[in-house]
Design a protein that fits this description.
By secondary structure, the chain is of the alpha/beta class. It is 42% helix and 12% strand. It has 17 helices and 13 strands. Pyridoxal-5'-phosphate binds next to helix 6 and helix 8.
Length: 438
């Protein structure tokens, strides 16, 4: 069925690969060359989950080996002074420059995304110290949230950890969650945000690229709306960083977090990053006050005195091993430039949509991702009632997308590692599985 169309699409895939200025970067990742794929049992023939767990770089093998022998094995505790104490900020600055549009001194790496969401959101909604003092002096109850504001805005389709954490913070502070009902095949629009903002809003938490649909929200427009309402914004960039253009400083964003193991290829459990706008840093107090976030770490003083600047957002010993594999992907993003990465990402998602229209639509597959490139991140979600079974069948043949309810197959396309031929091969496997199962 459709084999002449499939052949034409294969010729297009080869032409797109031949013209791809980023094609050679694929070779810098483990498992992407034909020989390794053929000789390694279980190696994916099409990997569509770089938006969940990126592939390791070849450079990481060398870096981790060197770390074991030299930095840890030989320098031992001296490495803390020589490099590790500063690592969360150094890596944060490199990431900020390469992928976040963030000037130095505003980004750090450490903790999981969930923990950083808690730290930054809880800091953002806490009553300002002077308000708390004034209330205490007047014998009044301390206001629930920052500036007496009582609401946190969150959308119904944000990633579960984001929603659960806001539930917890609202309960802890006696605040209210103001929900935006998001379309699972789209995402949150500026109009929807404007409709829920008020003088009660303390914080708005949104994902920039929706984990389910791949919808990309309008970062600058929403940030401005939130500021006009006198509130703060926290962006979850987990599905954005390393695949789409993010300009936190230019947007005027207040706070951001994102995963290190997706497009940043830091490996499972690698730490997240956090961003706090320079002008805000010393006005907030983060709730997990540990010894590494104080002004003078080795004074080991009697009480917590927060460091000035971004260091105050660190809690304890940084996860050094977890950061190792992020170095080379971040350097690669800087080398390629995020605009070129975004151009490849758009070309990949466009080709995925073209194949869907040509080969899958007639089988009942619908697109749960915007067709408009400016509203689309780095992955494409395909809906069909049989997708749960299709996903399981694809994993059996080493074609690896993932499944998300209600019946979506996520095709994650990693600009530095996915080739157009790989995309074509995997999409044909989707068609074959649908023909067998649906
Ligand atoms: C949008 C988003 N936020 C947060 C998380 C959770 O991150 P972690 O499990 O590292 O805390 C994920 C994980 O996939 C995610 O996709």
């Amino acid at each position: 069925m459709n084999d002449s169309t499939a052949d034409e699409l294969l010729a297009r895939a080869h032409a797109l690969d031949a013209a791809d200025p980023l094609a050679s970067y694929r070779e810098r990742f483990y498992g992407t060359d034909a020989v390794t794929t053929a000789n390694t049992p279980g190696m994916p023939v099409a990997y569509f989950d770089g938006n969940s767990l990126g592939r390791p770089t070849l450079a990481s093998f060398e870096r981790i080996e060197k770390f074991l022998r030299a930095d840890w094995g030989t320098r031992l505790i001296r490495s803390w002074d020589e490099q590790w104490m500063q690592l969360p900020m150094d890596l944060g600055d490199a990431l900020g420059a390469a992928a976040l549009g963030a000037a130095p001194g505003q980004t750090f790496v450490g903790d999981s995304t969930s923990v950083l969401l808690y730290k930054l959101a809880r800091a953002a909604v806490a009553p300002l110290p002077e308000d708390a003092r004034r209330a205490a002096e007047a014998g009044l109850a301390v206001p629930a949230g920052r500036g007496g504001r009582t609401e946190i805005v969150v959308d119904s389709d944000n990633f579960p950890t984001d929603r659960y954490l806001m539930e917890g913070i609202a309960a802890e502070r006696g605040m209210t969650l103001r929900w935006i009902a998001a379309d699972t095949s789209a995402g949150v629009t500026p109009e929807q945000v404007a409709a829920v903002l008020s003088e009660k809003t303390a914080l708005v938490l949104l994902s920039h690229v929706a984990y389910r649909s791949g919808f990309m929200a309008d970062g600058p427009a929403i940030t401005k709306l939130v500021h006009d309402a006198g509130a703060l914004i926290l962006w979850d960039l987990s599905h954005s960083v390393g695949s789409v253009v993010v300009e936190l400083d230019a947007w005027g964003a207040d706070l951001a977090v994102g995963c290190g193991y997706k497009y940043l290829c830091g490996g499972p459990g690698s730490p997240a990053f956090g961003y706090v706008r320079a002008g805000l840093q010393d006005t907030l107090e983060q709730p997990l006050q540990g010894w590494m976030g104080v002004a003078d770490v080795f004074a080991m003083g009697p009480e917590y005195v927060a460091a000035k600047g971004i260091r105050r957002y660190i809690t304890g010993t940084p996860p050094v091993i977890g950061m190792l594999a992020m170095h080379d992907p971040i350097a690669m993003i800087a080398e390629v430039g995020i605009a070129a990465i975004r151009a490849k990402s758009i070309a990949l998602t466009e080709f995925a949509i073209e194949i869907t229209d040509a080969l899958l639509a007639s089988l009942g597959v619908t697109l749960a991702t915007p067709r408009e490139a400016s509203q689309r991140g780095g992955h494409v979600t395909l809906n069909h009632p049989a997708m749960r079974e299709v996903n399981a069948a694809l994993w059996e043949v080493d074609v690896i997308p993932d499944y998300r309810d209600p019946h979506g197959l996520r095709i994650g396309l990693s600009p530095l590692t996915t080739s157009f031929a790989e995309l074509h091969l995997g999409m044909l496997a989707v068609r074959d599985a649908l023909l067998r199962l649906a």
